[in-house]
Fold:
Amino acid sequence: METLIENQVIPMPRIGDKAPAFKAVTTQGEINFPQDYSGKWVIFFSHPADFTPVCTSEFMTFAKMENEFSELNCKLVGLSVDGLYSHIAWLRTIKEKIEFRDMKNIEVKFPLIEDITMEVSKKYGMIQPGESSTKAVRAVFFIDPKGIIRAIIYYPLSLGRNFDELKRALVAMQTADKYSIATPADWRPGEDVIVPPAGSCGVAKERMESEDIKCVDWFFCTKALPLN
Ligand code: BEZ
Structure:
């Protein structure tokens, strides 16, 4: 995967790659990414522009859910190609003036990167010229505690993100890592998970005969996880 920007071919990071490293100025001071987040999950996301309505609704929702993500050992880092003073002014306006759904007086405490040069957004494939060559798309990178990109979701400018899905995806990946399982379509925490496919006829037979594992067929088996 790559993007072509001003006749320059820029490779886009992929699932399984190391998160490209950078230093940046943010609304919470300088960060050294991803080193500063070693040992933590990070949701690194871009938005098209400050002082725009969809982005404002998203920032308020990210800020409202920041503690829920923190409890899952996950930090939030945002980025747009606006400058630092625009970011500061926008976040102040959100706190002082904006009410949306059940949210008001919302303080955005996670770092928002200024990227006027587009250096970072280009590195992460956040500038997608077919959509806009002056604004980042709504990209979401899930980066694990070892600094590896584990999932990437892109949305166009007009589409606000689904935050239930962002949290669900994070919990599903953490659960898959912890129990060496996979998760089926629309899985929610607490539901049965998928046992990885049997690698031998013996294991397939065992699975079909097991009391703890439920098999739709030998290749499609699920089980409950321990309650915790
Ligand atoms: C918005 O956040 O509202 C927005 C930003 C760029 C283009 C369209 C909508």
